[in-house]
Design goal:
Distance between the termini: 35 Å
Radius of gyration: 17 Å
CATH class of the largest domain: Alpha Beta
Helix content: 40-55%
Largest sheet: 6 strands, parallel
CATH architecture of the largest domain: 3-Layer(aba) Sandwich
Number of helices: 10
Structural class: alpha/beta
Strand content: 5-15%
CATH superfamily of the largest domain: Response regulator
Number of strands: 6
Length: 225
């Protein structure tokens, strides 16, 4: 299946660079471009892209507001947002996740990693850069009363296996790595992750990480991996 991508960035040169990279692959195609947040919202409706590469700092409407408008539109339920920005700050990461972004990467990411990220997000999974994940965890460890909408009382809903896998997700392991660690198939690992997210009401893996830290499944400075 070919992944349809919309590029939303106010810098023409960057859009051109991204287009050249993405169009050089066999499974990704750029279907449109936007230079403002408002154009990104309109483009989401016009081009029906699978993934939108969304900058944050844009004229008229920033990428956070555009993301919120797109993810709250039921007609665009299948559109995934991958935020690609120079600014990897705590506040912006949290705002992007709250707005419904499925991924958050810095513009310094390697080309191959960007292509992989687009594929991950297109599959319906979430992805954060290591810096974004670290910032997110630090923020919520420092503010235990803050969260991304996850109900912390739901920990008892998780099975022992789901708790175990949640700990591994919080440690940054992929489904494939979890499968290797627990001697199960990647599809089984993915099923457990999805069930854990569904039970606690988490939208993506980032919220599962926060849940693990806030509920004491993972302790700062401790690694069970």
């Amino acid at each position: 299946m070919t992944i349809r991508v919309l590029l939303a960035d106010d810098q023409t040169l960057l859009r051109s660079t991204f287009r050249l990279l993405l169009d050089s692959t066999d499974d990704i195609v750029v279907v449109g471009e936007a230079s403002t947040g408002a154009e990104a919202v309109e483009g989401a409706r016009t081009f029906r892209a699978d993934v939108i590469l969304m900058d944050i700092r844009m004229p008229d409407m920033d990428g956070i507001e555009a993301t919120q408008l797109i993810t709250s539109d039921e007609e665009l339920a299948g559109v995934r947002i991958l935020v690609l920005t120079t600014f990897e700050t705590d506040e912006l990461i949290v705002e992007a996740l709250r707005a419904g972004a499925s991924g958050y990467l810095g513009k310094g990411v390697e080309p191959a990693s960007l292509l992989d990220a687009i594929r991950v997000v297109a599959r319906g999974e979430s992805l954060l850069s290591p810096m974004a994940t670290t910032s997110l965890v630090k923020r919520f460890l420092g503010q235990p009363t803050a969260n991304l909408g996850v109900e912390l009382t739901l920990i008892d809903e998780l099975t022992a296996r789901e708790r175990e896998i949640t700990v591994l997700v919080a440690a940054g392991l992929s489904n494939e790595q979890i499968a290797e660690r627990l001697f199960i198939s990647p599809s089984t690992a993915k099923t457990h992750v999805n069930r854990a997210m569904m039970k606690i009401g988490a939208r993506d893996r980032a919220q599962l990480v926060v849940f693990a830290y806030e509920n004491g499944l993972v302790k700062p400075g401790r690694s069970d991996t």
